[in-house]
Input
Amino acid sequence: MDTLTQEKLEEKFQAKIDADIKIEPNDWMPDTYRKTLIRQISQHAHSEIVGMLPEGNWITRAPSLRRKAVLLAKVQDEAGHGLYLYSATETLGVSREDTIDDLHSGKVKYSSIFNYPTLTWADIGAIGWLVDGAAIMNQVALCRTSYGPYARAMVKICKEESFHQRQGYEIMTTLMNGTEAQREMAQDAMNRFWWPALMMFGPSDGESKHTEQSMRWRIKRHTNDELRQSFVDASVPQAELIGLKIPDPNLKWNEARGHYDFGAIDWEEFWQVVGGNGPCNKERIDARVKAKEEGEWVREAAMAYAKKHKS
Amino acid sequence: MSASEWPLWEVFIRSKQGLNHKHVGSLRAADSEMALQNARDVYTRRSEGISIWVVQSALITASDPSDSEAYFEPADSKVYRHPTFYELPDGIEHM
Output
């Protein structure tokens, strides 16, 4: 294709984006738009799937049948969300199998929050409330993303996620109304998950290499720092209401800004965990690889059965 | 595609009696029966449907979006197909 046509196509594409017309799978799109989406949506899909592991750890030990049924439903939702997003990735012309192999080889990442262990039952509360809360903040914004299949998956995911955050907050509330030991357990989970939850929004705007282009293409509708601020503003009163302390001595309401000021994030820890050195990185990927390898014969047998019954 | 990769299916759901089946997404399954079961688990966990259709994605023929302007132009240029094209004399309110 000559450069003139290429330029015209890109101009037309940007005009569509600017007019808030969604891009659909077979529409012309710049290569980097396609690549950016494949990276972002597949990362998102992997996060849903890997995210089942820390919570799945507590299904057999949930403190009541009610909590167990709720946790099962939540983890099943995460599987569903991963599947919607793998389908959305496939509309961009990559195969699901290659996408999953990229996770296993470490070429594509998932949200670093899932590399932290779930040590107590309160962690299930903290994850639902804070981790899903942070994810929802991000995902609500993505419902208006420019790529049609991604936006549609997000709408469905957001509808389903709202119970996830509430069930987590309910666990925390119950613990805070319980014994001294239960309150301590809840505060301990809060202390461990608060900062990693803030890191979920990604590097600060100045450091984020993809933000500017993604904003122009309306893949992202808000910057990482904007979303992080909204999350802090929403979470602080929720914590205070049930008596949980935010583990940040610099947290303070700023009347002039109309937002909470908060302390500096330990980005060194973030990059260490992203880079593979978090407490559970190896365990998570090993579990995914094992699931794929040990399920191989089942998938083959199902295909063989399907072929036999077709003829 | 490896020997064990299942084909892709498109899923259509009727949300309630009296409405059309509507496309909701896709999934992978070895055969049509498994596609239906997976569609139930993936797309109707919250009573979204009372009926599901699945069809292998490879069997769908689609129009080309790059031709869409010319392809749909005949409909755009015929305003007289719409009731608002016609003037009604005063005194007639409903027709």
Observations:
- The helical segments of chain B are 32-43, 68-76.
